[in-house]
């Protein structure tokens, strides 16, 4: 039971403030939200956490019931009181900007008598002298007066804080007439809640997961979005996003902006659920609230955290899900909507490959340089457009096709680099550490650069480097060496094998037993030593940068450029020294 006072200048109705403070005082914990979401997903109904508390309603006045008349007999009831004094409500709420709150006190009974009652204030979460000015004294009801007020000053501060409360008590009621007497009614304590206006508004939803039963025709679902704390006009954007359900077939896209006015604490978003022509298992899509404005944010305890609010809609099929079609679809793992969506995406891949900038109209008209790059790379774009989209087979088809194309491109780059080295009369070793290494590492270089610019830490940049090197060493060497070992073990020491290795110093040792796959080390040891020295030098530079600037990346522009030049020089020194050693070995082998 409560009566909510209007805030001076805010024009909030009694009902709106009552709903607000009822929600504010009964907020659920993070554990309760998680339990609620769990029950909705796995049991199909929300948990009853906090339901009774949230459903408490506040009314304006608690009526005073007259005591029943005594039954006839020996017992004689005491005379009825001449007057009953009580508060006009049990709970009140005001914004801290109101300045003054008038708490009503009422008296019932014989209005021809004068009645007095004492009142005083006591702290709750609010503190007298800081949040309000304590009032204490005596109220006197003159004849024919049925209601008076206790005026209490509310003080505003500029500190964001939770809502606070204090209490007003009635005591020592008395009647001026000796022939009558007065009593206190059932409501002798009033709670006053001071709603903070400095705290940002929180935009949230009652549920993180919403179960929707699919029916044989389209229907509309209304999602209620609420706001608590703060004041003023706030807004946020909303948009739907595919999960296993597909936009345009399972639901209609919803996108826009919801705005909470000065007197609004809730708003609704309408989402259309479409009747799917094909049978599907349980599916889901998401409604995402983001980009809050007007000193508003989102509840960090809900899905999406402080940056957004995410509601998952789970579409549950009708009872037909128990039939043979349902079991067949689950066994095959087929999603016809995803498959049809994949057909459209696959077609779009080829269209985007033929258009400059992928047909992005927001990028503006393409420049001459962009046209040149497009014409140069268009064959590669069309080649890789053959890779199926992620909509098929849960993305696995795209994964395996991508691996296959990466292998083909790597083999092509290696062969082309070998041909260039042959034309320029360069040893394979020099070709490998220059042309092949640059061709296969440039994509990783740009990926590391993007990660360094977009991530708060450089971990992703280093991860690209180590991941690429691991693939090159373990897969690029391990796989062909394993295949070569199996091949020569099955073929044996053929004439071709003996001709290739008979000039080597260890040929007598190798020419025993079965066939062997042999890789001549050559100048690999020397190259590894140079590489290791360069690696330690690079780590030393990064260590000095952390000590000097607090991080490996960034810092003053001059030192960034100096570091870049030093690191490039380390690579150049490695290439030059390794190439010179390789050329010397090749010359010595030719002379020998």
Automatic annotation (TrEMBL):
Domain Calx-beta positions: 72-171, 190-290
What residue intervals traverse the membrane? Answer: 397-420, 524-546, 558-577
In terms of InterPro entries, this protein maps to: CaCA (IPR051171), CalX-like_sf (IPR038081), Calx_beta (IPR003644), Na_Ca_Ex (IPR004836), NaCa_Exmemb (IPR004837), NCX_ion-bd_dom_sf (IPR044880)
Please state where this protein is localized: Cell membrane
GO BP of this protein: cell communication
Q: What is its main location?
A: membrane
Report the catalytic activity: Ca(2+)(in) + 3 Na(+)(out) = Ca(2+)(out) + 3 Na(+)(in)
One Gene Ontology molecular-function label? metal ion binding
Q: Keywords of this protein's UniProt record, alphabetized? A: Calcium, Calmodulin-binding, Cell membrane, Glycoprotein, Ion transport, Membrane, Metal-binding, Repeat, Signal, Sodium, Sodium transport, Transmembrane, Transmembrane helix, Transport
Pfam families from the xrefs? Calx-beta, Na_Ca_ex
What this protein is called in its record is Slc8a3 protein
């Amino acid at each position: 039971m409560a009566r909510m006072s209007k805030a001076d200048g805010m024009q909030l109705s009694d009902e709106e403030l009552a709903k607000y403070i009822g929600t504010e005082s009964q907020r659920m914990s993070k554990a309760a939200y998680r339990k609620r979401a769990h029950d909705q997903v796995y049991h199909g109904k929300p948990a009853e956490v906090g339901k009774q508390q949230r459903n408490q309603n506040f009314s304006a006045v608690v009526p005073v019931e007259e005591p029943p008349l005594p039954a006839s007999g020996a017992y004689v009831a005491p005379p009825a009181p001449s007057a009953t004094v009580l508060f006009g409500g049990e709970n009140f709420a005001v914004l801290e900007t109101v300045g003054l709150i008038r708490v009503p006190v009422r008296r019932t009974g014989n209005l021809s008598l004068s009645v007095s009652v004492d009142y005083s204030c006591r702290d709750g979460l609010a503190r007298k002298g800081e949040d309000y000015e304590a009032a204490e004294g005596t109220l006197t009801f003159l004849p024919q007066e049925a209601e008076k007020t206790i005026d209490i000053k509310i003080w505003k501060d500029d500190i964001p804080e939770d809502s606070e409360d204090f209490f007003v008590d009635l005591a020592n009621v008395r009647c001026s007439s000796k022939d009558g007497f007065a009593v206190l009614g059932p409501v002798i304590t009033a709670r006053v809640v001071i709603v903070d206006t400095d705290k940002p508004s929180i935009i949230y939803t009652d549920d993180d997961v919403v179960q929707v039963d699919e029916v044989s025709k389209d229907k509309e679902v209304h999602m209620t979005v609420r706001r608590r704390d703060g004041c003023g006009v706030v807004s946020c954007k909303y948009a739907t996003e595919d999960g296993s359900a597909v936009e345009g077939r399972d639901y209609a896209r919803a996108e826009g902006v919801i705005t909470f006015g000065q007197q609004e604490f809730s708003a609704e978003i309408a989402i259309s659920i479409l009747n799917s022509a094909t049978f599907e298992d349980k599916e889901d899509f998401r409604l995402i609230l983001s980009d809050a404005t007007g000193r508003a944010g989102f509840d960090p305890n809900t899905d999406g955290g402080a940056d957004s609010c995410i509601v998952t809609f789970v579409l549950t099929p009708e009872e037909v899900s128990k039939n043979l079609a349902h079991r067949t679809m689950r066994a095959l793992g087929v999603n016809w909507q995803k498959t049809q969506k994949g057909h459209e995406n696959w077609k779009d891949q080829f269209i985007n490959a033929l258009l400059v900038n992928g047909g992005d109209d927001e990028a503006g008209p393409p420049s001459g340089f962009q046209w040149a790059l497009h014409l140069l790379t268009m064959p590669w774009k069309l080649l890789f457009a053959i890779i199926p989209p992620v909509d098929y087979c849960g993305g696995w088809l795209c994964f395996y096709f991508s691996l296959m194309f990466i292998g083909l491109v790597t083999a092509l780059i290696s062969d082309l680099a070998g041909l260039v080295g042959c034309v320029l009369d360069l040893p394979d070793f020099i070709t490998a550490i220059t042309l092949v290494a640059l061709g296969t590492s440039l994509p990783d270089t740009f990926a590391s650069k993007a990660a360094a610019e977009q991530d708060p830490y450089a971990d992703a940049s280093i991860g690209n480097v180590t991941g690429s090197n691991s693939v090159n060493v373990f897969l690029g060497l391990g796989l062909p060496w394993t295949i070569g070992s199996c091949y020569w073990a099955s073929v044996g020491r053929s004439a071709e094998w003996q001709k290739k290795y008979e000039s080597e110093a260890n040929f007598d040792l190798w020419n025993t037993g079965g066939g062997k796959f042999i890789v001549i080390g050559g100048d690999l040891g020397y190259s590894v030593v140079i590489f290791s020295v360069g690696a330690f030098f690079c780590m030393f530079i990064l260590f000095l940068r952390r000590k000097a600037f607090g991080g490996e990346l960034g810092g003053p522009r001059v030192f960034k450029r100096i570091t870049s030049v030093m690191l490039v020089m380390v690579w150049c020194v490695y290439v030059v020294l390794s190439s010179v050693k390789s050329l010397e070995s090749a010359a010595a082998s030719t002379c020998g």
